[in-house]
Design a protein that fits this description.
Layout: E1 13-15, E2 23-24, E3 36-39, H1 41-52, H2 57-64, H3 68-88, E4 91-94, E5 99-108, E6 114-118, E7 135-137, E8 154-157, E9 163-166
Parallel strand pairs: 1-5, 3-4
Antiparallel strand pairs: 2-4, 5-6, 5-7, 5-8, 8-9
Helix pairs in contact: 1-2, 1-3, 2-3
Length: about 170
Amino acid sequence: MGLIILPRPKKCRCIWNEPRIVYFKPRAVPLSELEEIILHYEEYEAVRLADLEGFEQVKASKRMKISRQTFGRVLQSARKKIADAVVNGKALKVKGGDYMVMQRKFRCSDCDHSWEVPYGTGRPSACPKCESSNIHRAAEDRGFARQGGGFGRGRCRRSGGNIREREASL
C-alpha cells in the first residue's frame, strides 16, 4: 500500500472588515443574463491592501498573516477575476473563502460588560448594555506591541460554513 500525502489545511487569512458592498455588475444588463464570478474575501482584502492602500507584498502579507508567496498567489487570482469581470462584462460577487475578521475588544467600566467590534467600524460611543460612555479597550486587547501587531480576536470562516473561534496572533 502506498503512502497517501494529504495537503496541508488552508490557513485562515486575516481581513480587517467585510466589505459593505458585495456585488458589482455591468449597468443596464439584467442579472439573469450575466455570468457571475466569485471573489473570495481574502482576495478582496489582498487587492485592497496592495492596490488601494499601496502596501508592498511583504507588509500586506504580514497583515493578513500569510506568507509573501501566498499573498502573491491570492493577489494574482483576485486581479485575474476582476479583469475577467470588467473586460468580459461579468458580475462580480464578493463572498466565501477562508478568512478571519479582526476584532477589537471593549469593556464598560460601569457594568463590566465586554464586547467585540470589527476593525474599521470606529470606536463605539457607548456600552451596548448600559449605554454608559465610560468604555475602554479591554486590557488583553490594548496596544499594538502587547498583542503582537495590534490584532484582536477573530472568527475563522470557511467556505463550507464551518465557523470556529480562534485567537489571532502573529
